[in-house]
């Protein structure tokens, strides 16, 4: 299919009838083939491309998020390496305390480069990403996040060699802390 | 919220050379969440929330954090810092409105 697009563009160019109509038609063919036309025609996407950081990102399912962040790498169980403190029942999903502590090194050949907090059922599962350096001294962090509903929360530590350690904990949320996707 | 952007930093009372200290920081910020219209579609607009937190010690970046709208309002963070020499700790929060809020604290040994 791609070959046909190229040959059409070439034929337009070679036949030396590169008037406006032919040019536009060729452009549409190429852009349509690349799937770009649709994106360019939707105003929301244009704004997102301009770099408005606060524009809402599309909803994403947990599998898509894991794929986007980690590709096909396997999440190893890291229960002995990561200590995650989360409440079993959170009354207010708008502020759920998360405390992460880890015995993994932050300096040396293989070190913790990032720690992710991922909630399986939030509209955008990736909640926060912490990047450490040797000057951090320790891979540990605490904050509070919003959970949309009762969900598993994963904490993933990414090592500099690509190894992933994950700990998953279930949190029951009484009052939703943020936006729910339409189908839960 | 009159004091949006106020950053406070708390350090341990006693710090010795070579310690890994726990720094607590808090910023006053609404961290706006997405809104939906009646048809349950997200209203597209530039939502105001902090997207990046950076920690610098003596001018060198030691930690960077990517945040989303799923972080609570008036977010607080506890993070580690290895102090080999005294210096100035700077925590900066950048929000989607283009503003940068900074807090500074001096680290002394005692």
Beta-strand residue fraction of chain A: 25-35%
So what's the overall shape of chain A? globular
Helix-residue proportion of chain A? 25-40%
Structural class determined from secondary elements of chain A: alpha+beta
Question: What's the structural domain tally of chain B?
Answer: 1
Give me the strand/helix succession of chain B.
EEEEEEE
CATH topology of the largest domain in chain A: Immunoglobulin-like
Please count the beta strands of chain B (DSSP E, at least 2 residues each): 7
Mean pLDDT of chain A: 81
The count of strands of chain A amounts to: 9
Description:
The complex is a heterodimer of chains A (184) and B (110). Chain A is an alpha+beta fold. Chain A folds into two domains: 2-50, no CATH class; 62-175, SoxY domain (Immunoglobulin-like, Sandwich). Helix content of chain A is 27%, strand content 33%. Chain A contains five helices and nine strands, in the order αααααβββββββββ. In chain A, helix 1 (2-14) runs antiparallel to helix 2 (20-33). Residues 11-15 and 35-50 of chain A have low confidence and may be disordered. In chain B, a hairpin with a 2-residue loop joins strand 3 (50-57) and strand 4 (60-67). A four-stranded antiparallel β-sheet of chain B has the order 4-3-6-7, with no helix packed on it. A three-stranded antiparallel β-sheet of chain B has the order 1-2-5, with no helix packed on it. The model of chain B has no long low-confidence stretch (mean pLDDT 93). Chain B has a single domain (7-107), classed as Immunoglobulin-like (Sandwich). Chain B has 110 residues and is mostly beta strands. At the A-B interface, strand 6 and strand 7 of A face strand 4 and strand 5 of B.
């Amino acid at each position: 299919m791609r070959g046909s697009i190229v040959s059409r563009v070439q034929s337009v160019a070679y036949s030396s009838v590169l008037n406006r109509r032919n040019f536009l038609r060729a452009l549409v063919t190429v852009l349509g083939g690349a799937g770009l036309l649709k994106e360019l025609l939707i105003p929301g996407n244009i704004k997102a491309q301009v770099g408005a950081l606060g524009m809402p990102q599309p909803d994403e399912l947990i599998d898509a998020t894991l794929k986007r962040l980690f590709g096909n790498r396997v999440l190893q169980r890291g229960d002995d390496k990561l200590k995650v403190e989360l409440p079993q029942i959170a009354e207010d999903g708008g502020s759920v305390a998360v405390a992460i502590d880890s015995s993994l090194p932050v300096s040396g050949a293989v070190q913790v480069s990032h720690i992710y907090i991922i909630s399986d059922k939030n509209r955008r599962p990736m909640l926060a990403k912490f990047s450490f350096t040797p000057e951090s001294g320790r891979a540990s962090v605490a904050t509070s996040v919003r959970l949309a509903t009762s969900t598993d929360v994963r904490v993933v530590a990414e090592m500099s060699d690509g190894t992933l350690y994950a700990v998953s904990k279930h949190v029951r949320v009484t009052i939703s802390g943020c936006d729910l996707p339409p189908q839960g | 919220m009159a004091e949006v952007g106020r950053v406070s930093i708390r350090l341990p009372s006693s710090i010795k050379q070579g310690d890994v200290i726990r720094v607590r920081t808090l910023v006053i910020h609404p961290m706006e969440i997405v809104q939906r219209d009646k048809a349950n579609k997200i209203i597209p607009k530039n939502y105001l929330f902090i997207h990046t937190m950076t920690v610098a010690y003596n001018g060198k970046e030691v930690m960077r954090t990517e945040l989303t709208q799923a972080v609570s309002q008036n977010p607080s963070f506890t993070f580690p810092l290895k102090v080999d020499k005294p210096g100035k700790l700077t925590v900066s929060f950048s929000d989607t409105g283009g503003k940068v809020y900074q807090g500074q604290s001096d680290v002394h040994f005692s």
